[in-house]
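Readers of this paper often ask what the protein records in our data store actually look like. Such a record has a labelled line for the sequence and another for the backbone structure tokens. Nothing more is needed to write down the fold, since each code stands for a local backbone conformation. The record that follows is passed on verbatim for readers who wish to inspect the format.
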Amino acid sequence: MMRAWIQLVIAIGVEIVGTSLLKLSAGFKHPLVGILGMLLYGLAIFSFSLALRKIPLSIGYAIWAGVGTAVTGLIGIWAFGEVLTGLKTLGFMAIIMGVVLLNKPLKAPQTAPTTSRTARWRTRYNR
């Protein structure tokens, strides 16, 4: 299970670097930088798919999207001179709260009834 979380961290980090490179490509005026950014997106998705073998989709995606969005926003402020407004600060706080809430179940998780097709799918793809 720890390996899945490491894969998720790698996916987030690689996506953040890829996004920053796409910004630096200036709309592909610097095509090699843009291509490298796109390749990193592919690597991020691959790493994310490995993480999803063990991490539930709703939790994994919430963390990936939330942390990626927040860190990318902070990079925009720090590296690209974007302005941190009160509304952006509220948005960052909402992202963090959303990720926290999705990771805290209110009651015990319920398992869906297993049909033969569902069982085959789980056996095939959740190794």
